[in-house]
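Input C-alpha cells:
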C-alpha cells in the first residue's frame, strides 16, 4: 500500500457542531471526500502510446477519514474510520507528540501491535491514555496507541468495532473500553450504535452519526439482521451479517446469480475499499462486465459502459424478507489513473476503470467494502447486536436524526438466517490483496492487450449470465421503530486524496 502523501494536504477545520443539548445524545459526523477526481477535464494528451500507460488503482474512492484532535492542547489528526477493527492509534511525533500533551498517560510501553488485511502491514507502539475530540465531542482518558513502527499502513486508524476484536484480545489480554464504550461511559451517546452514510462515489461528503440514524438519508425502511458470531469463539467480534442472495438487475429484468440456499457470512467493512466476493460470483460478474485483467490482476472495465447501463447488483441479507441493497453498476467502476495522474484511456479514447471487486481466496472472509457500502445506509448497533440496512439516498441534503436506544432499536430483526464467520486471521484479519501484492506502491504497468480492448461492451444482455435461479425480490418489511427527534452533533470524515496511488493494491483494514 502506498503512503498517503496526500494526507499532509489535509487541513483541520472547525466542525459544524451544534451545541450539545442535554438529551438525547447523538453525535453526527459529516464525512468529506476529496472531490479532486480525474474527470474528463483532467484529460491531457495521453502519452503517444496508450499501451504503455501505467494504470494505478486509485483509492481516493475508498477509505474515509475523520478529523480528530488528540491531547491537551489538541493535536490535529486524520484517522481512517474503520468498522473492521477496534483500536484507535496514530503515528507518533510528527503527527502526535505525547510530550506536548498534558493529558497524556503512558499505559503499556511497546505492547501495542496490530496487523491489518493489507499484506505486510504491521503497527507497533505504546498503549496510552489521552483525550480525543471529534465531531464536537470529547472523550477523556481514551485508551489508544501511539505508533513508533508502522509498515504498510498509511495513516492512523479509528477502529469502531467490538472490543472483542481489539488487538490485545488476540494476544490473550482482556479487552479495554473501546472508543465507542468510552463515548457511552462519558455520556456522549447513550447507546453503542452508529450509522454510516458514505454517499456517492463522486460526492464529497457523507457522514457518520454516533448514537442515532438519519431518516432522510435512505429510502424505504431500515431492516435489521442479527450480527453473526465468530465460529471459533461464538462471540460477536466483527460486523458480519448473513448475505443470502445476489441478483443481477439490468433494469429490464432481474436474475439471481446465487443458488437458493446461498448464505455466506459477509463483513461490512468501511476500512476495505473494494468488495471481496466468492470466486464463482466474481467470475460471472467479471465476464458480464467484460472485464480484462491487467498484469497485476486488476480487472479493467470500460467506465462508460458501466455508467450508461442502468443496472444494479442487488444484495439481499438475512433471507427473503431481509433488506435488499441495489448497487448501481457505476459504483463498481473506479477510475483508473495513470502515473501522471490522468484518467487512463483505451485506444479508442474511452475511459478505463478498475472493477471494484475481487475474488475471495481460501482464507479470506467475504468483505463488502466501500464499493458496496456507498449504496447502503447502514446502522451498526453493537448493543442490540444487529445491523440495519436501507437503500441510501445519494446526495441527500435533508436531515432528520433519530436516537437509538436499548429500548428502541432501529427495527426488529427480520430474519432467522444464521451463518458463522469462520474466516479470520488474528486481530488484523486476512489479506484480500491478492493478485497485486498489497505492498506495491507506485503503480503497475499496464499490458498492451488490455489497452487495446474493444469498446463495444453490451451490458444488459442478461443471457450472458451463466447461472440463474428465480429471484425473490422482496424489500418490504416492518417500519423503523424509534421516532425520537433529537439534535445532532456534527463530525467529519474525508476520503484519501488523488495522489494516493496504489498498484493493484487493495486497501483492507479488517
Ligand atoms: C478535515 O480537515 C480538513 C482540513 O481542514 C478539511 O479540509 C476537511 O474538510 C475536514 N474534513 C471534514 C470531514 O471535516
Ligand atoms: C452526487 O453528487 C456528485 C457530485 O457532487 C455527482 O457527481 C453525482 O452524480 C451525484 N449523484 C447522484 C446519484 O445524483
Amino acid at each position: 500500500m502506498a503512503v498517503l502523501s496526500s494526507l499532509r494536504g489535509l487541513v483541520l477545520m472547525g466542525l459544524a457542531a451544534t451545541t450539545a443539548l442535554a438529551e438525547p445524545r447523538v453525535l453526527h459526523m459529516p464525512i468529506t471526500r476529496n472531490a479532486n477526481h480525474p474527470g474528463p477535464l483532467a484529460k491531457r494528451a495521453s502519452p503517444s502510446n496508450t499501451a504503455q500507460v501505467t494504470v494505478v488503482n486509485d483509492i481516493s474512492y475508498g477509505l474515509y477519514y475523520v478529523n480528530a484532535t488528540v491531547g491537551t492542547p489538541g493535536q490535529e489528526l486524520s484517522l481512517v474510520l474503520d468498522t473492521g477493527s477496534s483500536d484507535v492509534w496514530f503515528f507518533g511525533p510528527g503527527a502526535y507528540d505525547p510530550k506536548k500533551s498534558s493529558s497524556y498517560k503512558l499505559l503499556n510501553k511497546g505492547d501495542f501491535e496490530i496487523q491489518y488485511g493489507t499484506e505486510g502491514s504491521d503497527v507497533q507502539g505504546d498503549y496510552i491514555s489521552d483525550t480525543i475530540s471529534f465531531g464536537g465531542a470529547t472523550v477523556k482518558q481514551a485508551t489508544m496507541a501511539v505508533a513508533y513502527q508502522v509498515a504498510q499502513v498509511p495513516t492512523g486508524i479509528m477502529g469502531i468495532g467490538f472490543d472483542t476484536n481489539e488487538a490485545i484480545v488476540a494476544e490473550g489480554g482482556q479487552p479495554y473500553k473501546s472508543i465507542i464504550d468510552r463515548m457511552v461511559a462519558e455520556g456522549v451517546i447513550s447507546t453503542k450504535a452508529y450509522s454510516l452514510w458514505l454517499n456517492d462515489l463522486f460526492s464529497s461528503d457523507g457522514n457518520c452519526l454516533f448514537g442515532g440514524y438519519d431518516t432522510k438519508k435512505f429510502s424505504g425502511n431500515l431492516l435489521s439482521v442479527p450480527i453473526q458470531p465468530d465460529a471459533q469463539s461464538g462471540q460477536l467480534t466483527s460486523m458480519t451479517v448473513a448475505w443470502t442472495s445476489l441478483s443481477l438487475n439490468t433494469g429490464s429484468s432481474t436474475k439471481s446469480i446465487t443458488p437458493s440456499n446461498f448464505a455466506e457470512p459477509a463483513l461490512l467493512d468501511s476500512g476495505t475499499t473494494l468488495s471481496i466476493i466468492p470466486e464463482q460470483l466474481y467470475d460471472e460478474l467479471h465476464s458480464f462486465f467484460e472485464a480484462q485483467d491487467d498484469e497485476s490482476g486488476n480487472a479493467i472495465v470500460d467506465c462508460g459502459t458501466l455508467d450508461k447501463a442502468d443496472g444494479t447488483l442487488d444484495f439481499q441479507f438475512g433471507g427473503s424478507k431481509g433488506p435488499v441493497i441495489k448497487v448501481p453498476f457505476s459504483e463498481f467502476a473506479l477510475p483508473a489513473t495513470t502515473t501522471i495522474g490522468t484518467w487512463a484511456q483505451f485506444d479508442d479514447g474511452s475511459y478505463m476503470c478498475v472493477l471494484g471487486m475481487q475474488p475471495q481466496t481460501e482464507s479470506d472472509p467475504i468483505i463488502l467494502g466501500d464499493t458496496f457500502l456507498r449504496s447502503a445506509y447502514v446502522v451498526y448497533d453493537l448493543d442490540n447486536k444487529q445491523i440495519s440496512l436501507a437503500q441510501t439516498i445519494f446526495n441527500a441534503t435533508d436531515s432528520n436524526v433519530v436516537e437509538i436506544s436499548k429500548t428502541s432499536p432501529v427495527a426488529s430483526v427480520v430474519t432467522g438466517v444464521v451463518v458463522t464467520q469462520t474466516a479470520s486471521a488474528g486481530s488484523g484479519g486476512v489479506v484480500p490483496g491478492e493478485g497485486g501484492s498489497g505492498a506495491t506502491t507506485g503503480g503497475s504497468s499496464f499490458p498492451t492487450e488490455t489497452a487495446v480492448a474493444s469498446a463495444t461492451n453490451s451490458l444488459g444482455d442478461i443471457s450472458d449470465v451463466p447461472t440463474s435461479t428465480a429471484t425473490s425480490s422482496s424489500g418490504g418489511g416492518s417500519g423503523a421503530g424509534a421516532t425520537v427527534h433529537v439534535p445532532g452533533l456534527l463530525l467529519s470524515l474525508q476520503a484519501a486524496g488523488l495522489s494516493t496511488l496504489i498498484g493493484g493494491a487493495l486497501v483492507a483494514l479488517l
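The chain has one domain: 27-403. The first strand starts at residue 27 and ends at 32.
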